[in-house]
Every structure is written in structure tokens, then in C-alpha cells.
Design the sequence.
């Protein structure tokens, strides 16, 4: 008994002595704000100091997205499986552990208020139908929310939050799936959905989603 409590005390002491913040979080912040000194540019130079991206430049908001989702996308980009002429060259030197640390840092940031790219009333009507009902009878099209969760606020590492993401970025991704230039989703789940959408629907749903609160945490 005595021995056990001494061990417990030692264990507690070790825990308390650790510097504030997990080591991974410190590494993540350093990588995000300073890069790795070897070729990986600071992520925040494109994705913003608050992690919320830049709508005009096509840099997605990463703040508050699931860490596992973010890490997988960076790995795919590093390995050339998700094509990105802009980001591909600047993440080549990152290890898996570094990618996990920097992804955890972005996942911990607050998503902030939704973007201002408000849809018209007609676009909002088209979008809410796609998100909540889909079009089973007409096109075998499942609602976005059946995978991306209520309000498209995301479900675990597999189904990213779409709410509060920049409209132009969302549009570009849907068109990339239609064109087959983004094809990293398991079982072509997203490709199957995207190929059923018209141009007007893509614009409507992207603008509507951008104006929704992300509220992932
Ligand atoms: C030179 C600008 C630039 C830098 C630096 C940069 N990125 Fe990106 N990033 C982009 C662009 C552009 C995209 C969108 C790619 C596309 O259109 O498919 C992107 C996409 C992403 C995505 C996918 C988001 C999603 O919702 O699927 C993640 C995750 C990401 N970046 C993380 C990072 C991390 C982590 C770093 C730092 C190690 C970083 N980026 C550095 C430009 C950059
Ligand atoms: C059957 C499941 C499923 C349905 C339904 C679905 N998605 Fe997805 N979606 C996914 C998966 C899985 C991914 C992640 C793909 C990856 O990991 O590359 C994704 C990713 C996305 C992305 C990329 C987000 C980012 O941050 O890069 C967009 C945009 C998107 N979906 C839009 C939609 C829209 C709009 C609808 C409804 C019209 C929809 N999705 C319906 C499964 C689905």
C-alpha cells in the first residue's frame, strides 16, 4: 500500500512538473507560425494567424475543423494524392508527427463568425433542400447533412464541417470532384454526390454553407 501511494505521488509530481501545454501543441504552434526551417512555409502566411483562411485568395479556413480530417488532407497533399499547386510544394518536408501536431493546433482555434457571402433567398431555398432533404426520388441524391451532420457542422475525421467555410473554396472543391481532380474520398462518396449537382446548385449551396455558423466545439 505504502509503495503504491509513493509511486502515485511520484507520478503526480512528474505530471505537475511538465511544462504548460502538451509538447505536441508547442510544436504545432511553432510549425504553423514559423514553418520547419527546411522548406515548409509558415501555414499562417496563407491560412491566417487566426486560421480562418482568406476567401479571395482561395485559402480555406482551418480553424476548429477536426484534427484528424486536417491531418489526412495535409498528408494527402504532401504525398501528391490531393493536388495543390500552391500548397503542395510547401508541405513536402513535414513528418507525420509534425502534421499531427500542426493539425491539432488549427483544430483548437475558434472558427469565428460565418463568412459574409450571403446567398439570395432563391439560393437559400435550393441549398436548404439539398442539405436537409437531398433529392432521393429524382437523382438518388442523399442530403449533405446525412454525412456532414446537422447544419453541415461536421462528423468526426471523415466528414468535414462545411458550415462557415469560404464559398469560393467550397465551389472549387465541388468542381474538382466533378472534374475528377480531387478523388481522395473513400468509395467516391463525394464524387458521386458532386457529379449530380448543377452549376447553379453548386453556387447556391456553397454560398449558403459559407453563411452558416460552424460551432464545432
Ligand atoms: C502558400 C500558401 C499555403 C501555405 C503556406 C499552406 N497552405 Fe494549406 N492550403 C493552401 C491552399 C491554396 C489550399 C486549398 C487547396 C485546394 O484548393 O485544394 C490549402 C488547403 C489546406 C488544407 C485542406 C483543408 C480542407 O478543408 O480540406 C489543409 C488541412 C491545409 N491547407 C493545412 C495547411 C498546413 C497545416 C500548413 C502549414 C504546414 C499549410 N496548409 C500551409 C495554401 C497554403
Ligand atoms: C455519402 C456521404 C456524403 C454526402 C451525402 C456528402 N458528402 Fe461531402 N464529403 C464526404 C466526405 C467523405 C468528404 C471528405 C473527403 C476527403 O476526405 O477527401 C467530403 C468533403 C466535402 C467537401 C470538402 C470540404 C473541405 O473542407 O475541403 C465539400 C465542399 C463537400 N463535401 C460538400 C458536400 C455537399 C455540398 C453535399 C451535399 C450536396 C455533400 N458534401 C454530401 C461525404 C459526403
Sequence:
Amino acid at each position: 500500500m505504502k509503495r503504491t501511494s509513493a509511486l502515485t505521488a511520484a507520478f503526480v509530481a512528474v505530471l505537475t512538473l511538465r511544462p504548460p501545454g502538451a509538447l505536441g501543441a508547442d510544436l504545432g504552434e511553432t510549425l504553423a507560425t514559423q514553418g520547419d526551417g527546411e522548406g515548409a512555409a509558415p501555414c499562417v502566411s496563407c491560412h491566417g494567424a487566426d486560421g480562418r483562411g482568406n476567401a479571395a485568395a482561395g485559402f480555406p479556413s482551418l480553424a476548429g475543423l477536426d484534427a484528424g480530417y486536417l491531418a489526412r488532407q495535409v498528408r494527402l497533399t504532401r504525398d501528391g494524392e490531393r493536388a495543390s499547386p500552391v500548397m503542395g510544394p510547401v508541405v513536402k518536408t513535414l513528418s507525420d508527427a509534425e502534421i499531427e501536431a500542426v493539425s491539432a493546433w488549427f483544430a483548437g482555434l475558434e472558427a469565428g463568425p460565418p463568412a459574409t457571402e450571403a446567398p439570395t433567398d432563391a439560393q437559400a431555398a435550393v441549398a436548404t433542400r439539398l442539405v436537409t432533404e437531398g433529392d432521393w426520388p429524382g437523382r438518388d441524391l442523399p442530403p449533405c447533412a446525412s454525412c456532414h451532420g446537422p447544419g453541415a457542422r461536421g462528423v468526426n475525421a471523415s466528414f468535414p464541417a462545411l458550415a462557415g467555410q469560404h464559398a469560393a473554396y467550397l465551389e472549387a472543391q465541388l468542381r474538382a470532384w466533378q472534374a475528377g481532380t480531387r478523388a481522395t474520398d473513400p468509395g467516391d462518396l463525394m464524387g458521386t454526390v458532386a457529379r449530380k449537382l448543377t452549376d447553379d446548385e453548386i453556387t447556391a449551396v456553397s454560398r449558403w454553407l459559407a453563411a452558416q455558423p460552424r460551432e464545432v466545439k
Remarks:
- Residues 2-17 form the longest helix (16 residues).
- The two ends are 41 Å apart (CA to CA).
